[in-house]
Input
Amino acid sequence: MPQIHALITGGAGFIGSHLAESLLNAGQKVTVLDDLSTGRYSNLAQLEGREGFRLIIDTVLNDALSEELIRESDRVYHLASAVGVKLILEQPVRTIETIFRGTDVVLRHCTRFRKRVLIASTSEVYGKGTTVPFREDDDVLTGATCRHRWAYSCAKALDEFLALAHWRETRLPVVIARLFNTVGPRQVGQYGMVVPRFVEAALAGAPLTVYGDGQQTRCFCHVLDVVEALQNILEIPGCLGKVINLGSDEEVSINRLATTIIELLNSPSRIRHVPFEEAYGEGFEDMLRRVPDLERPRQLLGYSPKRDLKTIILDLAADLNSKRTAMVPS
Ligand code: UDP
Output
């Protein structure tokens, strides 16, 4: 069988870099296109020099370059996106533009050259729906346009509409993966994600800052469980033209998450509660619960996440610890 050549946009990000490594390990050629806006070179440093690996530092919005890279690849994984609630609130224009324009560029060229493409979407698309678990065909419920959090959700929903429109009109072989909270090594707390923030704080003996009353829940999935599914998803014809949830359905409150991290890491840290307004500014709306229905990925992919919350926390802590050790001069 000829070697498959995969293009990963946003491949220097935390999920993309794991996917790049996994595809290379499976014998594929991998080109990463990333402008390093939220991705980091250090995520890929260990892949430099490996046969079949290439990193191009540029943006997916570079239409001519994207065209060329898509033409020469067999699979496209479109992961490039502004990420994290914090960034979305700080840079709303960039968020909307990069999400929608980037996906438009990718879908147009994939349509033209008939390339199989995965569009990474997000559970944010479900908005503030309260009936969990969320199924892919459920209605979505977003907030007012003056509340910028929902810009992310709506831009991603528009990406999904566009992808499904290409599938409907020309049978573009596209799959949309709605990723729920994905966590693991190489993730940093800088963009607001709660688990790396708590683990970083616990390792430093600093307070863990819980927003609101901490009773809101999330389901955290190990990045390697997500990446295994992403790797298979374009190879299964039944997945084409579908939206597919990916994540864990093990629900935990943010309070419990904080105490679990402190206990597991034997940390002297304390928990501090702060109001949402203090953390995100006036008028912020948080979701109380967010749980995926995993029936579809189970049926189509035989998907079932293998790594539990404890493994996630310990893997992340080991990664952060190794970086801290590396920074200490000998
Ligand atoms: N959160 C928190 N402290 C932090 C960062 C986040 O209590 O330092 C809360 C946040 O308000 C939310 C949950 O943790 O209820 C998950 O936040 P994250 O940004 O990781 O993911 P998302 O809100 O997108 O699910």
